[in-house]
Design goal:
The protein contains 5 helices and 7 strands, in the order αβαββββαβαβα. By secondary structure, it is of the alpha/beta class. The chain starts with a helix and ends in a 29-residue tail after the last helix. This is CoA-binding protein.
Amino acid sequence: MRDLNSLIEKYVDEPVWAVVGASNDKAKYGNRIYLKLREAGYTVYPVNRREQLIEGDQAYNSLTDLPEPPAVVNMVVPPLEAPLVVENARVAGAQAIWFQPGAESTSAAQWALDHGLDVIEACILVQLALRPRPDNIDTDPPASHSRPVTTPDPTTSTR
């Protein structure tokens, strides 16, 4: 088994992910993670058996329904659901299970390791924030986002 940092380095660069527990609820991490991965340019599949669309994209009932194998399955579900998710991830051809904080399951993680999957327990949002930005990204906000210039209100002139 590799150390956590080398696993994170390897899998944060994998282009195809699935988020189990993806959500339309902007207050939930399943939504934040899905959107952040999508915005970062990953091919990311939302998995949620209760939703047909997540943020306008087709949602899938199960990992085994995805059109291609995800390299990484990011889990944002209660630990009691983890064993089934991990088994489906293996069947779907995933290489790694990424447990978000709060989704960890010792038994599911051990099963994954015993069946050849890598296991990561970390927050992908933190890892994405820590990634170095490419040199070609402009860090200055576009002119349209610059602070407006205030002009005196002619109706309140003191002349």
